[in-house]
Amino acid sequence: MVTISPYGTWASPISSAEAAAVASGPQWAGLHSDQLWWAEGQPTEGGRVALFRGRPGEEPVRVLGAPWNVRNRVHEYGGRPYVVLDGPRVVFTNWDDQRVYLLDLTDGDAEPVPLTPEPGTRHGLRFGDLVAPPGGTAVWCVREEITGPGPTDVRRSLVAIGLDGTIRELKSSHRFMTAPQCSPDGRHMAWIGWNHPDMPWDATELCVAPIHPDGSVGGHRVLAGGRDEAVCQVEWADDGSVYAITDPSGWWNLFRIDLDGTARNVAPIADELGGPLWKLGARWFAPLGDGRHAVLRAGVLALLDENAGTVTDLDLPPLHWLSPLAASGSTIVGIASGPTSHGAVYRVDLNTGECAQVTTPPQGLDDPAWLPVPEARVFTGPDGQRIPAYVYPPTNPDFAAPEGELPPYVVHVHGGPTGRISGTLDNEFTYFTSRGIGVVAVNYGGSTGYGRAFRERLREQWGVVDVEDCAAVASALAAEGSADPDRLAIRGGSAGGWTTAASLTSVKVYRCGAAYYPILDLLGWATGETHDFESQYLQSIVGKLPETEQRYLDRSPSTRVDRLAGPILMLQGLEDEICPPVQCERFAQQLAGTGIEHAHLTFEGEQHGFRKAETVAASLEAELSFYGQVLGFVPVDVPTLELNR
After folding, report:
1. pLDDT tens digit sequence for 177-224
2. Strand, coil or helix: what is 20?
3. I want to staple 420 with a disulfide (CB 3.0 to 4.6 A). Which of 294, 404, 447, 611 is the partner?
């Protein structure tokens, strides 16, 4: 029997603990010989990342148990943290000390052996984007050396780490670089580099340099990229040419580029075959041989045939695939999720068409009766631009709302802001929708997956276009009668937390907002409060300093506290080097005594993005209680969050 109860008060079997258990799925899938490899977050083990290997139809084997944590801090977001060599042997980075280790799996009793020295200061040396050049005696990667006390006191270089522990610098061409790829004949290496103030989706350079017989590397040449062109991946085609994803046409497409710089788009398409290089080691295409490539067409797994010049989606279940892809012969390996399925490692056999799921997500969120099926929508912004979004309606088979009641809705703002959201199962969304709260996830102007022109709608407009697009979607849902116009909220993390706070201080659409590890003070963030990778990001999406300093002040929520449209909840990790805790601390101090309801929750041991199960669970419960108090319903089975004034 269906119980009639107001939206937001529905009882749900999906607890915060169950939602937290799937907060971090598999990542960094790879293929070596006939085995699949991947890393996977362990929320119930302090959020550490474990390493696994396995085959379809077999139980996965955990290669590295506690206390090993297969992560690194390169660019703070991290780069590929492991590489598999013949043996098998695995070389990996460990979070706690940021050192590189070797584990020889031919010896069942072997323990990891450090290959890099203990840094003089904590995390003073970081390594990431590990790759294996020919020979099996070394690993190539990016090294970060912390050179001073400031967040931008960093030097980066490309290095070779011998399995005997020797370290040799190969090159240092740019402030930021990807790990080098070695040509089949061992005579050249190729990599991608860029400098401040560019971000890797704005302008990068594809570099190639000769490798001399003594192993030294000569001067480099730029084969592609430059102003308003962003190369995001490179792989060798043969000794004299590379494959690269770049976007001179405004779309990330696959090019074949000879060493003399001659370039050919092998399959022109008005669609994205690449993405933003937030983490070093991302791969959106994988060569299969004979001119065929596995590619990600805006998250859809497809086959590119350069001989025919075509890109054809594979006939597979409705899944959204993530970078990186790996392939060998007729086998493709990657991580994918669907509208009602959590992220898992999949293996696709092109000969048989089989798409086998290798990993099984934790139980508890797999009953389809409780899972909202996201509806892909396109809304219209105030400037006439399209705004893609996914609507997750309230879904609970045991409850219905009283006749005539409209549901509260939360606008979810993805991070980045150069990122995107896909219409897949989300544990946090389900936690809310199963209790009678709708969620709409918005790909506002600046999101990736829609070409450079859409991405650059945010140029000097951060805090304007993102705010207006999200407000337009919320208002449209209210106007069509899908959402209660008086019970709209907004939430997001990082850049999404910024848009949450910026929205609450510039438009009157929302009653309240939940800002996870947000940016609140643009000027402080751009002048020494964030890490090197993003330290000049705002020059493109807000404006150059010092010329536009007033714009930074005018748009910052920290200067407009008196304009808050409603209560705000702030949630912050205390080890966050990207959006530092000081920003929320100052904002909470500004709110004290104003009469505006607010809460400021902090979490020890959390960096940028929450990884511990207890943190995720506590955050969800706090957010639900917050919405209930502000939007006028009493949620069941959650502690009451204390709001300050």
Report:
1. 999 999 999 999 999 999 999 999 999 999 999 999 999 999 999 999
2. helix
3. 447
Per-residue tokens: 284: 């959106």
76: left (phi over 0), alpha (psi -120 to 50) or beta: left
Report the sign of the C-alpha dihedral through residues 357, 363, 369, 373, in that order: negative
Query: Please, is 384 exposed, middle or buried when counting C-beta atoms within 10 Å of its C-beta (0-12, 13-18, 19+)?
Result: exposed
User: Is the Cα dihedral 552, 553, 556, 558 positive or negative?
Assistant: positive
DSSP 39-101: EEEEGGGTTEEEEEEE-TTS--EEEE-TT------TTTT-B--EEEETTTEEEEE-TTT--EE
Question: What is this structure's pTM?
Answer: 0.96
Under DSSP, the state recorded for 226 is B
pLDDT for 361: 77
Can you say how many angstroms the Cα of residue 287 is from the centroid of all Cα atoms in its chain?
A: 24
Interatomic CA distance for residues 10 and 435, integer angstroms: 5
Rounded to 5°, angle at Cα 358 from 293 and 73: 75
Calpha distance 383→361 (Å, rounded): 42
pLDDT 10s digits, 383-429: 899 999 999 999 999 999 999 999 999 999 999 999 999 999 999 99
Cite the beta strand spans of 247-319 per DSSP E.
Answer: 253-258, 263-265, 285-289, 292-297, 300-305, 310-313
Residue 593 class from Cβ within 10 Å (0-12 exposed, 13-18 middle, 19+ buried)?
Answer: exposed
- How are beta strands 409-413 and 438-442 bridged, if at all? parallel
Closest CA to 139 of 175, 90, 191: 90
Amino acid letter, 502: A
State whether the Cα torsion 534-537-538-544 is positive or negative: positive
The strand pairing partners of 295, in sequence order, are 285, 302
CA angle 474, 568, 489 (to 5 degrees): 20
Identify the CA nearest to 79 among candidates 176, 198, 188, 216: 176
Element holding 391 (H helix, E strand):
strand 386-392
Query: Distance between CA atoms of 570 and 304, rounded to whole angstroms?
Result: 45
Cα–Cα distance for residue pair 8/624, rounded to 1 Å: 9
User: Hey, is 337 helix, strand or coil?
Assistant: strand
Q: What is the dihedral of CA 267, 271, 277, 280, to 10 degrees?
A: -40
Which letter does DSSP use for residue 138 in this model? E
